[in-house]
Amino acid sequence: MIDLNPVIHESARLVLVSNLYVVEKADFVYLTNRTEFTSGKISSHMAKLEAAGYVDITKEFVGKRPRTTYKLTDTGRHAFEQYRAGIEGLLNAAE
Amino acid sequence: MTHTSLEDLESQAYQDSLSDGLTDLAIGLSLAWIGIIWLWIESLPGLAGILPAVLTWAVAYIRGHILDARVGYVRWRAPRLSWQGRRLVLLAGLVMAAFLLGNGVMYALRQGETLGTQGIVPALPAFVLGVGAFVGAAKARLRRLWGYGVVLVAAAVVTIVAEANPGASLLVSGAIMASIGAGLLTRFLRTHPVRDLG
Predict the structure, then answer these.
(1) Does residue B45 lie within any of the structural domains?
(2) Residues B46-85: pLDDT tens digits?
(3) Could B65 and A63 be called an inter-chain contact, meaning their C-beta atoms sit closer than 8 Å?
(4) Which of A31, A74, B138, B158 qualifies as a FRET site for B111, CA 20 to 30 Å off?
(5) What is the DSSP-derived secondary structure letter of residue A38?
C-alpha cells in the first residue's frame, strides 16, 4: 500500500509546492502569477503547509509595501521528493 | 499551461522572468554605445565601459523597485544561478573580445593598413556576438536570441560589403535590440499592474 502525503496530495498545494520546489524562494506576487490562484487560496494553503513545517513564511517591507516570501523547508523538500517517489511507484505498479 | 517535468516548470518560469525586455534594452543600449564610441569618439575607448556599468546597476534597481511589484520576486536555486553566472561571464567575454577586435582594427587603420577595410576583420565584432547569440538561444531556449543572432550576423555581412567601420554594425544591431527591448518593456508594464505584495 503506497501512502501518499495528504498535505501535499491536495491539488492546489501540490501546484504551490511544485512551484516552490524549483526555486530557492518566491514571494506572493510571483506565486499568484505562476498559479493564477486567488490571494485567499494561496494564503490558506500556505498556512497549512507552514503548520506542517513544509514552508517558511517571511513577512517584510519593501519600501512602504509589505511583502510575503515563501521558502520550502528541508522537511518540505524531503516530503515532496517522497511524494514524487510514491506517485511514480503507484504509476509504475499500474502499468 | 502544461509542464511535463519539474525541469520544464523551472525553465519556463526562468524564461518568463526574462520576457519583460529589460535585459534586451540594457544589452542593446550597451552595444549601441560601444558602436558610437568606435564611430565618433575612438580616441577615448575607455568610455565604452561606462554605460554598460551604469546599466548593470540600473537593471538591478529597476527590477527590484519596479518589476518585482508586478511580476513577483523569485530567487533561483544554486544550479540556475551558477548557469546564469557562466552565461554572464561568457557575454562579458564576447563583448570584450568584440571590443578588442574593433580596437585592433582601428589601430591597424591608423597605421595605414588596408587589411581591415578590405577583409573580414571589421565584421568580426558583430559576427562574434552573433555566434554568441545563437549559442545563448540554443542553451536558454529564448527565441528572441535567434533573431538577435541573425541581425548581428547580417550586420557583419553588410560591414564587409560596405567596407564599414566595425562600430556601425554594433550601433545598428544594438539599436534594433534596444528598440525591441523597449517595446517589450512598455507592453510588460501595460499588461502587468502593480499587485499587492501579500
Answers:
(1) yes
(2) 777 788 888 888 988 888 888 888 888 899 998 888 887 8
(3) yes
(4) B158
(5) -
